Amino acid sequence: MTEFNLHDKSSAPAESQPLLENSEKAFGMIPALHAVMAEAPGLLEGYQELHRLFTESSFDATEQTVVWQTINVEHECHYCVPAHTGIAKMTNVPDEVTEALRNETPLPSAKLEALRDFTLSVVRERGNVDDDAVQRFLDAGYTKRQILEVVLGVSQKVMSNYTNHLADTPIDKPFQQYEWSRR
Hints:
This protein has 183 residues and is an all-alpha fold. It has helices at 17-27, 32-37, 41-55, 61-74, 80-90, 95-103, 110-124, 131-139, 144-167. The protein has two domains: 14-54, no CATH class; 60-178, AhpD-like.
């Protein structure tokens, strides 16, 4: 496997240095994912911007976690599942939601299950979701806006999940306690 650098503000390309400063301000550290992405400033900037936009979407913290973790688990991302488990705890997402997502067991509400099902359809069908799946999502109480916001979440997660697969990104110390692998 090709080894990728874990950049800090002194080793990163000049264009990535202020982006890493943003990461450090936001997270109190430079997450290893960001340290890897810093090699390609456009990737890191795009990822940070998509993250900001998705967190400002119409989904609440629990729904954001459902979208993120559904994708992370589907892509078997060794880094993002633990990281988003920690983030879910920090944003007071119920543990029963997090555990259901990590273990691929039923979620505590039909509406959240509809969000997971629709997100999986978008990922697995590469956006070619059939009309029945779209209607089930809308019937569950979601909107056309949220259909497109799932696409936004998928876009963000493709960037991180694929980077982590290619770089075998090490899990950050605060998230190592949430290590995960598909059973």
